[in-house]
Design brief:
The chain is mostly beta strands. It has a single domain, classed as 3-layer Sandwich (Rieske Iron-sulfur Protein). 0% of the residues lie in helices and 45% in strands. The protein has no helices and 10 strands. The chain has a 4-stranded antiparallel sheet, with no helix packed on it. It has a 3-stranded antiparallel sheet with strand order 1-10-9, with no helix packed on it. Strands 5-6-7 form a 3-stranded antiparallel sheet, with no helix packed on it. It is globular. The protein starts with a strand and ends with a strand.
Length: 102
Amino acid sequence: MMDWTYAIDETEMAEGQLIPVSRQGVNVVLARIGRVIYAVSGKCSQRSCPMFKGTLVGYTITCPCHGWQFDVRTGKFLNAPGLCLEIYPTKSEAGSVFVNLG
């Protein structure tokens, strides 16, 4: 089921910036890389650290608390594939970004 929720205007998203968004009680982090917008869980899978305070280099988001690195495309932890961040589909329409929280 697709549950598309408005997240942000595209004009507010700069390349490589991490943007926290909370909708329907779900915290996500948005990142624009090229023409694609990715959405991952806003909290690290270990200590619930706020991922928007981390860094983004290429497709790798690094947790600000302990340096764990995840791929924003898949949510997978780069050093232990069994751990991951939840990922959410995104779409852009008429200058608005939507996230599927369903």
